[in-house]
Amino acid sequence: MRKNRWLIALAAVGIHMSIGSVYAWSVLTKPVMETMGMTLSETTWAFSLAILFLGLSAGFLGSVVERMGPAKSGMVSACFFGSGLLGTSWAIHSHSALLLYICYGMIGGIGLGVGYITPVSTLVKWFPRHRGFATGLAIMGFGFAALVAGPVMRFLVDTYGLVTNFLLLGIVYAVVMILSASYLRPPKAGEIPVMLADVLKEEAAKGKKRTLVGPQMTRKEAMKTWKWYVLWWIFFTNITCGIGLLAVASPMAQEVIGLSASEAASLVGVIGVVNGGGRIFWSTVSDWIGRGQTYLLFFAFEVVAFLELAGTNHPYVFEILVLSIISCYGGGFSCMPAFLSDIFGVKQLSAIHGSILTAWGMAGVAGPLILALMKEATGGYTATLYVFATMLAVAFILSGVLHWKNEEEKRLVIQREE
């Protein structure tokens, strides 16, 4: 059956909108604490485990996803994520913290990781001339998901209770993900104007900055290069700093610039919009200026923004800086798959992307932990913001080296061909 690439993109968004509901966990934090009799830190561990297992499963199962294909791997993701939510319903009913960690954190987290990388290489092949836009479209769905899931979860908990909330969501998300996954597959000749291999040849001939320089690599081959480690570190840095800020956006706004609780909550809602919007905006920009320059822009701006944030108490300046940082945070997610395809090719893009996503799992723990420990030690946020600015400065230097080496290799390849 002939497929429509926009429906392929919609199917990818369907998967990411489902698993992206994990970002609405904060809506459920207090109900879980009250129902289970758990502390805030004990409850937060369920979310932290989910992000940790997202990164680990994406890293270790990336090659399996590549071999299975997007339809089968998407259904596997649906089974894990759906059963994780159903198991969470059971855990809440049983008042078992251990079951909560296993079901929501571990089983659900595996569903997150597999589902996150499932559509990536497929979308790149369907939109070969706009690879950044294509992957940004799906990953945007992950960022925007909380805007839909948050109010829905609030309504379900208030109306039917916490147990029924997880039960209904587990069934609905599993159905949406299975239907979406069933439509996914790579394009066949004639279904799109030009195939990816031809586009890469055209870009190479024109000497575009974002074009693949070397041969198509497997995950093992990519992980033996220094570039993989640089990409892992800059991805880890961007997420650590961004997710650390996300974790304290509301209390920080109240303590630093005196926003009320309701005003801070409104800011968090806007952050969700900017997080999702930044993903599609920056990934589209990267199609025009190249991924290397885009990451250099991220880090250069974020260094300045975190330094300014450490010294401001003006409400509007504070909000603009926070939203701008979150925009770059979201953009870092959406630009990475296309950046990987530019450097390592698409032969095993899902597997390579999965290996890089282990940085997300580590950062999901490191960011909030660094901020919490330093807040307790110093009594404020300023020292942490300076640490984040320093980390981002190092990432800027590494990104510059990576970009320079890619350009140098490109120049040598073009010279040899001429």
Description:
The chain is globular, with a radius of gyration of 21 Å. It starts with a helix and ends with a helix. It is built from 17 helices and no strands. Helix 1 crosses helix 7, helix 3 runs parallel beside helix 5 and helix 11 packs antiparallel against helix 12. By secondary structure, the protein is mostly helical. It is 84% helix and 0% strand.
Through-space gap between termini:
43 Å
**What composes the largest sheet?**
none
- Computed structural class: mainly alpha
Helix content: over 70%
- As a percent range, the share of strand residues is under 5%
pLDDT under 50 segments (min length 5)? none
Question: What labels would you give this structure?
Answer:
418 residues; mainly alpha; 17 helices; 84% helix; 0% strand; globular
